Amino acid sequence: MVVDALMRDIEPRIIPTVTPITYDGKDVLKIVFSGSEKPYSAFGNFLVRVGTTNRKMTRSELIKLIQLNNYSIDWESRNVNNSIDDIDDLTLEKYFNEAINCGRLELDSFDKEQLLSILGLYQNGKLINAAMALFGKSGMVSLKLACFATDDKVTFTDLNLIKGNIYTLINEAVTYISNHINWKVEIGRKRIETPEIPIKAIREIVINAFAHAFYENHPEIEINIHPGLITIFNPGAFPIDLTPNDFINKKIPSLKRNPVILDVLYRCKDVEKSGTGFQRMNKICSEVGVKWSYEKSGYGFTFIFYRVTQNANNVTLDVTLIGLTDSETETMNLIKANPKITREEIATVINKNVRSVQRITNSLVAKGYLIRVGNNRFGYWEVLK
Fold it and tell me: Mean pLDDT, the chain, as a whole number?
């Protein structure tokens, strides 16, 4: 009777274990159940424990709980029907050599089954989804690579769609960006080539995109290279109420959407300490004056590296506009690169508060450089001169 009531009145459906016990001199029932489909309701209500009482969750609390639960799912740990032969041997052996060389793996020699077991990807004769995503032959992950003639996604000059596994596609993505950005060459006793955006910073963000993607529906990581910016799109929404700056300034721990995949990448030094990727990227970019920002949406997370404008002789120059302050010039450059950029994103890049950015954009409008089309939430900037 009790079991029937629990199964009927708790949603999603649970299978409880009911055991009669004596507690504090009284005969009671001990009821135990577990599940991963949070949140659960009892008698149609979602409750939260506050001290010694229960109260109904507010609408905002319920939304946050659902979004947080959706951020981290168990997809990567589910068993698959693929056999160990569906793992790419060459890719796995390359990973093995890197993990051994950086001292994060102890294994005397390459043994496919033993290595997969150590990594937690092969247990009791079964592979899990993370194994196929990381090293599989099936090409369950997609990478879209494109170059555009302008900073709008209208006319592309190059377009590629590659299917593969995470370990291989990370290197494909970094190589593609490296081949399509500008390099400064200094020739002296030794030839020195310096990229306009540090490759280490690019790799941090590319790895972040693959490590935190939502893999349930065969995702597509997207990299777009424009004259003024480079965008890296990850089909996995960013943690609610957090921004990259929170991980940089507050040093909060990483929220892991795919902890197994993150652990495997850590062993080959693709990932360092959890939650520090944005800190390292920001430090590297700050040292060389590279600006960045981001866009959050319900469909995923886009990271943006800002490039500098090129002149006809391929010499890198920042755009300087007569009669504008340094902050106004910097704001104009950001808006030219991304007309949909928000005041909050501008504030992050130029290191000012939103109120200051409001004054800067108002000044640019008054001077006839800009107009705002649409509202603050869904509108965009139009550059007049």
Answer: 82
Helical axes 326-337 vs 343-350, angle rounded to 10° = 120
Kind of pairing between the strands at 183-187 and 191-195: antiparallel
Do 94 and 147 meet the contact criterion of CB atoms below 8 Å apart? no
- β strands within the chain, DSSP E: 10-11, 17-23, 26-32, 41-42, 47-50, 53-56, 122-123, 126-127, 141-148, 156-164, 183-187, 191-195, 220-225, 229-234, 292-297, 300-306, 309-310, 316-317, 370-373, 380-383
Contact 285, 294 (CB under 8 A): no
By DSSP bridging, strand 220-225 and strand 229-234 are antiparallel
Which amino acid would we find at residue 130?
Answer: A
Distance separating alpha carbons of residues 168 and 172, to the nearest angstrom: 6
56 has a pLDDT exceeding 90: no
DSSP H or E segment with residue 353: none
Show the tokens assigned to 42: 């009892």
CA distance 100 to 345: 41
Please answer whether residues 75 and 215 qualify as being in contact, where contact means their C-beta atoms are separated by less than 8 angstroms. yes
CA dihedral angle for residue 259, residue 260, residue 266, residue 267, rounded to 10 degrees: 160
Helix 199-211 with 166-180: angle, nearest 10 deg: 150
Q: Tell me: the pLDDT tens digits for 214-237?
A: 887 777 899 999 999 999 999 887
Per-residue model confidence (pLDDT) at position 101: 87
Is residue 238 a contact partner of residue 301, using CB atoms and an 8 Å limit? yes
User: E strands along 33-155, which residues?
Assistant: 41-42, 47-50, 53-56, 122-123, 126-127, 141-148
Residue 40: per-residue pLDDT:
72
Confidence band (pLDDT; 50, 70, 90) for 311? very low
Q: Which two tokens stand for residue 212?
A: 């935190």
- Kindly list the structural domains of the chain, giving each domain's residue range(s) and its CATH number in brackets, ordered by start: 2-71 (no CATH), 318-385 (1.10.10.10)
